[in-house]
Amino acid sequence: MTLVSPPPLSNAQDKSLPRSTPESQGVSSEGLRDFIVAADEQVDSMHSFMLVRHGHVVAEAWWHPESPSKPHILWSLSKSFTSTAVGLAIAEGKLSVDDRVWEFFPNQAPKKPSGNLRAMRVRDLLTMSTGHQDPVRLTDDVPWTEAFLHHDVPHKPGTHFRYNTPATYMLSAIVQKVTGETVLEYLQPRLFDPLGIQSPQWDNSPQGISIGGYGLYLRTEDIAKFGQLYLQRGKWNGRQILPESWVQQAASKQVSNGSDPDQDWDQGYGFQFWRCRHGAYRGDGKDGQFCVVLPEQDAVIAITANTRDMQGELNIVWDYLLPAFKDHPLSENPQQLDRLNETIAKLKASR
Length: 351
Known about the structure:
This protein is of the alpha+beta class. It folds into 2 domains: 23-70 and 219-345, 3-Layer(aba) Sandwich (Beta-lactamase); 78-195 and 209-218, Beta-lactamase, CATH 3.40.710. The chain has helices at residues 29-42, 78-91, 115-119, 122-126, 144-149, 165-179, 183-195, 220-231, 244-251, 310-321, 334-345; strands spanning 46-53, 56-62, 72-73, 201-202, 216-218, 235-236, 239-240, 274-275, 281-285, 289-294, 299-305. The strands form 3 sheets. Strands 2-1-11-10-9-8 form a 6-stranded antiparallel beta sheet, sandwiched between helices. It is elongated and about 70 Å long. The model is unreliable at 1-13 (pLDDT under 50).
């Protein structure tokens, strides 16, 4: 595996999101401070937080030594970006969700593919419903696409949800196959440049393919911009840079993955996005990386962290942030805003 060590980015932000006071966008500064205090006390450890409401950043915090200009590893939140690349490639006519996976790599597939492998489509990769039972083991000894295609497929694709990071790698490999560019290169002019996301870095496989399922490094505001793009149904500065139909499909429940109404990992899965409680959806990654889109509140939440309790982290969002949202502007509250900023200024990461 080729690991990229991303350099710190410049403080220059040519395309930063607009800033606003919380109250002007219908958010309580006091409620935000309650969230920050709870997150600081209960999440071991928060690294950053940004809240966007009605298109404006109304709160942002970094736990020292994290900073606005420092890229953070996204882990599996990277998957939602890979999904976006697939959506863009489909819009350009380069592939379809119904294309058969093995046909992209006939020379690396078994000579006699099983019926289930033959039936596996791009859609099944997107929904983590490849038909695998056991995880695919990826090593430096065998090309990763070959290892995936030679793995047993005991279930009919599309019928069995199993979280599957190698499936996202296959999406990345397919995008590279049909475009001639890595997902990172492909997204640069189509997503990263329009959103003002500076110097993104993405780790590669030994075969020089963006890992897809993890390995992307971005700043907290970059995560927030990505969520805002989806909240705006693919529009950015008045231009449709991602098809609205793709946003709708990716963010909707495509497959069931559980039945517990109190668990945010049981609300259904889209195209590399999780459905959440409270009408929200998200991309997320190991150790507490989140991009949460809340259409009902017209809000986006970006969080980076290093925690083992991701459900607990989300519970704090629901318990403290949802009550802070109002459906109308509030009277400015400079005293509470000062208290919020004073609290943020003292934050330090514990790990």
